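Hey, resending since the last one bounced:
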Amino acid sequence: MSSPGAETPTVWLGSAGTGTSHGLAKTLREVWGDRVRIVAADVNPGHLVGASLVADRFVQVPYSAAAEFPSFMVEALVETRTTLYVPILDEEILWAARARDEGILPRGVEVIAPPTESAAICFDKERAATWMDERELPTPKTWSIARARWTGEPLFAKPRLGRGSIGARSVSSQDHLEALNRCGEDLVVQEACEGPEVTVDAVRWAGGTRAVARERLEVKAGVCTKARLFESSEMESLATRLGDELALRGAFCFQVMRLAGRWVITDINPRPGAGTRLTVAAGVNVLAAMFADFLGGAVEPYLGRLDGERFAVRHYVEYVTV
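The structure tokens again:
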């Protein structure tokens, strides 16, 4: 944390209406209390964003694709005296990474975002598959929808730039594949994998990488609501390779499934997920470790080992806002 007498650090959380950002706000408040100031930002008004009640201040922002977004953000980060900026959605992470790398962000503002090139790789599923193939990282064979061919084996299609499993679907026949090709969507097609689907919650800092496997037992609207958590040296090794080769810093997650008897990586997110708080609840606080790394503090105390598998569940929480 800051030295005595130093100004209280201010953390700007983007996309505050998401489960991911809400989980970050809760972690900051639980661990740091009033020793950190939280600014929650979202395109929705504050009374529709539960995290606004956890934060010290709420800011309604334009969509990241809007022409006014860059200038708005630079001015708002200065006005709120933000010291640590945490973008959440893909498009904003890309913008923040470029803004940092090009020196556009205000002086004194750190951003938790990967290098621009790494962000672009993670968010483009076709490009990510090629990148992993080149490094012999385990991943399903992946083609653009135009290059995919039906061989009688099950396939799986999903948006090339999608997230949260939105638009993902099985491909069951030649006719189905041809119909998807004609629809004009920007899709990729992969070898169909088998369950279980496991998210690996990880954090990387100068001292190393720590990861925990989280089997998704139940998913609602793309968010894990029931999970089995366990230690896996194989998953931690994959997390270390991904973190090192993409130069990630902070919390991130990726998905793995089974294919031909081995684990393969199906998706990479250079940020934590909405379900990462399940891992936090089980006792491995990768989110607090991330903030400790950036705010100044020991990382390791938050990253103890599980002495066996754990199960975690979540339920909705009600807020009344004004």
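The longest strand covers residues 208-220.

Sorry for the duplicate.
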